[in-house]
Amino acid sequence: MMSVIAHRLFASLIVLSLWTGLCATALAEEPMLRIGLVGLDSSHAPAFAKAINDPQTHPGLEGAKIVAAFPGGSADLPVSADRLAGFTKTLADQGIAIVGSIDELVSQVDAVIITSVDGRVHLPQATAVIAAGKKLFIDKPMTNSVAEADEIFTLAAQHKVPCFSSSSLRFAPEILQLKEKSGGVGAITGCVTYSPCATQLHHPDLFWYGIHGVETLFTLMGPGCESVACIRTEGADEVVGVWKDGRVGTFRGIRSGKSGFGAMAFGTAGIASATVKVSYEPMLVEIVKFFRTGAPPVATGETLEVLAFMEAANESHKQGGIPVFVKSAQTAAK
């Protein structure tokens, strides 16, 4: 009897060993994904590089490496000009090649992440990357307007280049749990999200930082917002959206007092809240997967609607807080 058990155990160990070897071989044979960064004036650039290039990398980032970077920078934006040299040195010290142009960059990489902190430069930078046929992820804010984002997506479609943009909050595990059945909420009937909402020179109010909370709102509610009303004070924005099915979603942008990232979801089965511990790895895993498959995890239409929501909120503020149709914001961009 013991002999039979020992024989079966030995056979199982052989099978396990072979399977492990096959998995290791498959990983070894998968070509390295060479990634380039455009724009080193954002704290996201060194953070992304550290996460992706770490030998003890997060599961899902194996086989990817940031190998080259173009500094870029905006002289008329202090938050860019004051940090560019320091972040560039940080990446150079990590052994990442610093190049003098986007054209030089794309010749050395398979895919590109635009991390430029200035949303104004994303359109020309994306245009150069798309022309080279490289898969592209654009960090927040995708652009400073719906019109510019639509132009990027149109160019990408014409050149058959996969492209997407997102806030890291869309992939936060705490938010995804609220959205899924395991969160205990059921079908979401409404929600409130919040995030810091600092503003910045040359950028529409919500585009700079409020986009994190707005993207969280759309992650939970989905697309389909019809109108937006915005109340703005020195310390906060209160933005209320009405969806076409009658659901209501609210974003609170915080500029004074205690701040943070989170949401409360109201559903058919319960009410639950989540505080988000910001981490880039979940989004980076999705980016690497996208670079390998070419399948964007966020629909183009939803990204455009997120931007249109923010444009409508700004227009509502200008008009004293009256509701503004999101469709009108998209139409005005055409």
Task: Report on the architecture of this protein.
The protein is an alpha/beta fold and 334 residues long. It folds into two domains: 29-139, Rossmann fold (3-Layer(aba) Sandwich), CATH 3.40.50; 170-333, Dihydrodipicolinate Reductase, domain 2. Helices cover 43% and strands 22% of the residues. The chain has 13 helices and 13 strands. The radius of gyration is 22 Å and the shape is globular. The chain starts with a helix and ends with a helix. Residues 18-28 have low confidence and may be disordered. InterPro entries: Gfo/Idh/MocA-like_OxRdtase_N (IPR000683), Gfo/Idh/MocA_oxidoreduct (IPR051317), NAD(P)-bd_dom_sf (IPR036291).
Question: Strand count, sense and closure of the main sheet?
Answer: 7 strands, mixed
Order of helices and strands: HEHEHHEHEHEHEHEHHEEEEEHHEH
Strand content: 15-25%
Name given to the CATH architecture of the largest domain: 2-Layer Sandwich
Give the strand order, joined by hyphens, for the main sheet: 12-11-7-10-9-8-13
- Report the structural category: alpha/beta
CATH level-1 class of the largest domain: Alpha Beta
Q: How far is the N terminus from the C terminus?
A: 79 Å
CA radius of gyration is: 22 Å
Mean of pLDDT: 91
Helical content, roughly?
Answer: 40-55%
Query: What are the segments in which pLDDT stays under 50 over at least 5 consecutive residues?
Result: 18-28
Count of alpha/pi helices: 13
Report the CATH topology name of the largest domain. Dihydrodipicolinate Reductase, domain 2
The total strand number stands at: 13
How many structural domains?
2
Overall shape: globular
CATH superfamily of the largest domain: Dihydrodipicolinate Reductase, domain 2
